[in-house]
């Protein structure tokens, strides 16, 4: 329409601006509805797991915590080793 001379560039841009403002207002008023994919089943009780942030990174923990302390694995894809209760690991590092 601008190229054909039927509408001025200023009028066209004003209409575009109003349209974009309307779309942004509509977008802000609607909640974002996203769900994360389900985690793997709990190896202890078979229940659901959810992604959690721990001191050593992200992992999938049982939703029945603290009754169930099952951990399904790390989000990084690495293996997760469950230590027996009461076992403490002592490491000595030789720094050069």
Automatic annotation (TrEMBL):
Q: Which UniProt keywords apply?
A: Isomerase
Question: Which terms in the GO cellular component ontology are assigned?
Answer: chromosome
**What GO biological process terms are annotated to this protein in UniProt?**
DNA topological change
Keyword Protease annotated:
no
Residues forming the DNA topoisomerase type IA zn finger domain are: 42-69
Instruction: Tell me which Gene3D superfamilies the record gives.
Output: Bacterial Topoisomerase I, domain 1 (3.30.65.10)
Report the InterPro entries cross-referenced here: Topo_IA_Znf
Q: Name one GO molecular function term.
A: DNA binding
Protein name (database record): DNA topoisomerase III
């Amino acid at each position: 329409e601008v190229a054909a001379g039927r509408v001025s560039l200023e009028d066209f841009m004003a209409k575009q601006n109003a349209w974009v403002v309307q779309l942004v207002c509509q977008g802000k008023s609607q909640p974002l509805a996203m769900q994360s994919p389900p985690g793997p089943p709990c190896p202890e009780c078979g229940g659901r797991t959810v992604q959690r942030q721990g001191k050593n990174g992200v992992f999938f923990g049982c939703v029945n915590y603290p009754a169930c302390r099952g951990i399904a694995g790390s989000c990084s894809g690495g293996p997760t080793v469950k230590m027996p209760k009461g076992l403490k690991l002592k490491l000595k590092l030789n720094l050069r």
